[in-house]
């Protein structure tokens, strides 16, 4: 097949920081290394406690702009019999990468996520994830992650490169379904979180 489209140009399009990109700066108010970050939203599929079949991923701050996280594959996460679904694994990487933005104290969403599936991941496996931010260029945040089987130094099962885009709070309030937005707004903790992240009002 020939005829790559503009979005398929070679060299990991959109995932390479431009030459003028800066190293990421950990925000002085970021949680200390070793601290759990906590769920940003109770109903989040990645980290929320209120999602019975969610990933219940708990991210912990690392040094610099890095995090670690653990995720145990449940029966609800299968694709092939006894194996994790690739989309679920991509979600675990996405959530881990997204939690880096807490350390930058920037509200950001995933624009691009490129995932390598290196090894099959059986149900019952605990995946040890780690992610770090590589560079920041304006609103663009370049990050990378990997997940290892069974232990922090276990075999690599998945890897990802991602581009996050900084957004304003109205990205959520303008686009989210009103029921959930109103419910989130009425939770004092959520408002606190939202305000804490509104760094450029
Ligand atoms: C009040 C209630 C309280 C709520 C609580 C608030 C606090 C919550 C805190 C934190 C929540 C975090 C949740 C984490 C969950 C895990 C992460 C996810 O799964 S996020 C969901 C999946 N992602 C999306 O749904 C994005 C959907 N996409 C969009 O909305 C837009 O496309 C967006 C924002 C990503 C970009 O749109 P543009 O209009 O802002 O920007 P443009 O002009 O298109 O792009 C800017 C630059 O970025 C490049 N760019 C954009 N998309 C790209 C792509 N896919 N690949 C490569 N480059 C891309 C462009 O080429 C451009 O580059 P050049 O400045 O010209 O150099």
From TrEMBL:
Keyword Transit peptide appears in the UniProt entry: yes
Substrates-to-products reaction catalysed: tetradecanoyl-CoA + H2O = tetradecanoate + CoA + H(+); hexadecanoyl-CoA + H2O = hexadecanoate + CoA + H(+); octanoyl-CoA + H2O = octanoate + CoA + H(+); dodecanoyl-CoA + H2O = dodecanoate + CoA + H(+)
Pfam families given in the database record: 4HBT (PF03061)
Compartments (UniProt record): Cell projection, Ruffle membrane; Cytoplasm; Membrane
The protein's Enzyme Commission number: 3.1.2.2
Main location: membrane
Any one Gene Ontology molecular-function term assigned to this protein's record: hydrolase activity
Stretches for region Disordered: 1-31
Domain Thioesterase: 82-146
Membrane-topology descriptor: Peripheral membrane protein
Origin superkingdom: Bacteria
Keywords for the protein's UniProt record, in alphabetical order: Apoptosis, Cell membrane, Cell projection, Cytoplasm, Fatty acid metabolism, Hydrolase, Lipid metabolism, Membrane, Transit peptide
Database matches in InterPro entries: HotDog_dom_sf (IPR029069), THEM4/THEM5_acyl-CoA_thioest (IPR052365), Thioestr_dom (IPR006683)
Sequence similarity: Belongs to the THEM4/THEM5 thioesterase family.
Protein name (record): Acyl-coenzyme A thioesterase THEM4
Species of the source: Streptomyces fildesensis
